[in-house]
Design goal:
- By secondary structure, the chain is mainly alpha-helical.
- It has 24 helices and 2 strands.
- Helix 13 packs antiparallel against helix 14.
């Protein structure tokens, strides 16, 4: 029976990043190397027992088991409109791995409004009553989140969203059954999941859902007294706003962070960087430079403990800071000075995060367009589009669309420019043209 090639990519990545061979893994989980090889290449379905064994070996909680397709359906493969669709998906309960169906609409109402409505949600709540609230549940959920973050690097967002939504539904249900320090722990982990789900929704092109999850993350962060996550959600809102290309709205979204006395210098640095990017989108060069200088000053200060707990995508490093500055320069129309900054970093980025490398490649395509090199710009645009087919990235697609007017205005007669323009056209426009 044919398997799931995208799940196979995730499994292969989990194995190779741990430096394990097929034989080493299969010796520990008790299966033939050819079986795992066929699963990783999408030629064989992953069985539940093997998924559970791999979760134990890779220390990914129940992440892999939650991605195993069920007879009840497959994960959604298209973005929604702010509220998950009302069809069913399967949730794995902790302490025994029992699976049960839940309704996306009922889960959404419960997470957003605290309303338990519908027979499936009532059954789910009764099942949660039987779970023992201890550190094992939190540890398993944290391990699953770490596994999901690894999978995000190479997997389409829609492949992971149902499984993560199920995890956060469990966490919120258990959170409501606790108090004091334990409630704060559950709230903190729920905020982590919601932040990651906002990224997934954004990358899938579902911006209303991204904002919905940002609101959930902010709500749970406030319940946990986690000021830095609350501040970071202003940064996340500005990232979603940037898809509108309204740079000054991006700036306005993050101003409150700079006025939050308890926000760490790291959070203020991220906010100042978003301001620099917003001013660059608006073409305000001097304001962008001043904001970026402020960001560098903030980010040079020591890291606080609750900074380290935030998203792995925002660990400050020389590469990240250089990319921040290069992004502003690209938006401001620079090309020649950006290319030697971004191009050498593609290989290392591809090793650490294929998704991040794809977004950076899209920015590099625009840098080449700014520099008057359409052939190189189109080559990188095609490479980016091929990568988008694999992982689905609205961020990378948006960066290419920002480069498109420049390519078309200057070199509309070139066949490679016309091909990129056709590929980037919205589906309806492409159909009308055909």
């Amino acid at each position: 029976m044919r398997g799931d090639s995208r799940l196979g990519v995730v499994l292969c990545d989990l194995r190779t990043t741990r430096g394990l061979s097929l034989r080493a893994v299969t010796r520990q989980v008790g299966c033939n190397p050819s079986v795992l090889s066929r699963v990783e290449t999408g030629h064989r379905r992953l069985s539940p027992w093997l998924a559970t064994a791999l979760d134990r070996l890779y220390a990914t909680g129940t992440m892999i088991a939650s991605l195993v397709p069920t007879s009840g359906g497959t994960p959604r493969d298209s973005p929604g409109s702010g509220i998950p669709r009302p069809d069913l998906f399967v949730v794995i309960l902790p302490q025994g791995g029992v699976t049960m169906p839940v309704s996306r609409r009922e889960v959404t109402a419960s997470l957003g409004l605290g309303i338990v409505a519908g027979p499936l949600q009532s059954q789910f709540e009764r099942a949660l009553d039987s779970i023992k609230l201890d550190g094992d549940v939190l540890a398993s959920s944290q391990a699953a989140l770490d596994g999901f973050k690894e999978a995000i690097r190479v997997s389409p967002p829609a492949r992971l969203m149902d499984a993560m939504t199920g995890q956060v539904a469990v966490l919120d249900g258990l959170r409501r059954r606790t108090d004091g320090a334990q409630r704060r722990q559950y709230s903190t982990l729920a905020a982590h999941y919601a932040e990651s789900l906002s990224w997934l929704s954004e990358e899938a092109g579902d911006l209303p859902s991204a904002l919905w999850w940002i609101d959930r993350a902010s709500h749970w962060a406030q319940a946990a007294g986690w000021i830095n996550m609350t501040a970071f959600m202003f940064v996340r809102r500005s990232m979603v706003t940037s898809f509108s290309n309204d740079g000054l709205r991006v700036v306005d979204q993050v101003r409150p962070v700079l006025e939050m006395p308890q926000a760490s210098p790291r959070m203020k640095g991220f906010a100042a960087n978003r301001m620099a990017s917003g001013y660059a989108l608006a073409g305000q060069r001097d304001e962008s430079r001043r904001a970026m200088d402020a960001a560098m000053d903030y980010l040079a200060q020591p890291v606080r403990e609750d900074d380290a707990a935030l998203s792995q995508l925002h660990v400050a490093s020389d590469d990240l800071l250089a990319t921040y500055q290069a992004t502003c320069d690209v938006y401001l129309g620079y090309g020649a000075r950006v290319i030697p900054v971004l191009e050498p970093r593609l290989a290392s980025l591809a090793t650490s995060s294929f998704r991040r490398a794809t977004i950076t490649r899209a920015k590099l395509a625009r840098a080449y367009a700014n520099a008057g090199q359409p052939e190189q710009a189109c080559r990188l645009a095609w490479e980016t589009l091929e990568a988008i087919e694999q992982i689905d990235s609205q961020s990378a697609r948006s960066e290419l669309r920002r480069a498109l007017p420049l390519l078309v205005d200057r070199w509309h007669g070139r066949s490679d420019v016309q091909e990129v323009a056709h590929r980037l056209a919205p589906p309806a426009a492409a159909t009308a043209e055909a």
